[in-house]
Amino acid sequence: MSKKHKRTNKVVKSGQFSSAELTALSPGQKGVTVAKMPLLRDQQFGVSTPCGAEPIFVHSSFRASSTWLWNKLRSTPNTLAYYEIFHESLATMDLKQAATNSYSAWRSKHPCSAPYFLEYTPLLRATGGIPAYDASMAFSRFVPADGLDGHLSLEETIYVDGLLRNAHANQKIPVLTCTRTLGRVRALRKAYGGTVIFLHRNLFHQWASYSSLALAGNSYFMDTINSIVKSSRHDSFISWLDDWFSSRIASPENEQMFQVFLLLHLYLYAHAFDAADLVVDVTALAADKNARLSIEQALSNLVHSAVDLFDVRTDFEQSVFCVGRIPDFRDTIEQFTKVIVGTCLTDESVTFVCQMKDKALEEWDRHEFFIRGARSAHVTEIAELNIERDNFAAQLSEASASRDALHHSLAELASERDNLAAQLSEASASRDALHHSLAGLASERDNLAAQLSEASASRDALHRSLAELASERDSLAAQLSEASASRDALHHSLAELASERDNLVAQLSEASASRDALHHSLAGLASERDNLVAQLSEALAAQDADCRGGIA
User: Fold this and answer.
1) Do residues 117 and 193 both lie within one domain?
2) In this structure, which of 148, 448, 536, 543 has its CB flanked by the most CB atoms within 10 Å?
3) For residues 341 and 358, what is the distance between their CA atoms, to the nearest angstrom?
4) Are residues 373 and 459 in the same domain?
5) Looking at the whole model, is its pTM more than 0.90?
6) DSSP calls for 125-149
């Protein structure tokens, strides 16, 4: 095995330290990091809790007891523990959905607890969803665009920042858990530091949980395998894995699907292991009390409160895939694993990957050991059942064809019914419109009848007025006739008077002319008189002068 470069910080593994050793670890040591920030006194645990403490990240895969561990950390007084921080439902979640999404809503096998997403409710928008979160963060960004050693997108950073601010505003240690972060463990560590916990269980046991749920009709977890692979093809190993097992079927009965599940997890786990401060093996905790006590102490130191993992357990559900050629099956896994260990950063992670692979296959071998005999004993029975199944399938196919024909006829009848219903609706609407119009016309008729009655009364009154006016007209006509005769007589008298006036005017004209002539003559006489008066005045003046001269 080639020599890997060593980690500079100690990683706490399940069972690596005793309780006393873990208690003695310094606060700055990885695995029990305590932020150097203002402290709040925790009366229950007898220690001080960091205000604005660094976050604790819990990374795991699906069906690996992550909800159980989250609930343990959630129950401590100093933490604000977020469940599945990249869950796709957070994009549209409202208060009602948050209140009803809990362990009891499905066959979860999760511990009893308050609804999963209670801690998010203060952050919900009125229109639903968490600010800055987008559903693409669930699987489309499972592996960062620049790879497993890459960086978070700006949107992811803004979103996680909001979660941390909310926890710090409540003076709690932020605990962020998720089964959709295995491809970005390093990216989150680069962005936020804090303490990184990597949680896992025996991979064959985990597969059996996927398988059991799929057989019961819940294929979500089985489908996540392809969701992760298809959205992470920019990673060369995952792309190779996808192409090599391209004929796989997303079914618990498909051996290639199991191989993809196992190898994908080994690859992601190798990188998560190298980035982790604390690695928690749930399978080991259930089997080894000392391992459990070690992890309890490490977690208690992190959250400054007692964490009790006494109820840890492991179970096995159901695996049904059957391997055709076991040597080929195992060797394919071995060859891919050799490539995976070549991507590991430390000797520890190489050992870890190999152990995870070996333990999974050991459990598969043990499973096959116990069921292989039963499987062989029931081969004939299975064959007969397969024949019966095929017969039932043929009958079902015929019944389905008959059902489809009936459905087609029913659809046609339903279509005819809908057409008739539509026509009836239109006719009813037309009838209602006509009734409405008729009521309007009746109202108009009554108004017109009332107006007609008023008009008839008015007409009768006008006829009476007309008769009175006709009588007045006849009287006036008689008076007019008399007036006309009187007028004619007056015209005759006026003509005579006009003739007399014309004669008088002629006489007046002649008198005026005679008067003017007299005035002219009078003017001449006046002039002559004036001349004579002047001459007389001169003569008198001369006489007076002569007399004054004679006297002198």
Assistant:
1) yes
2) 148
3) 13
4) no
5) no
6) -TTSS-TT--GGGTTTTSS-TT-TT
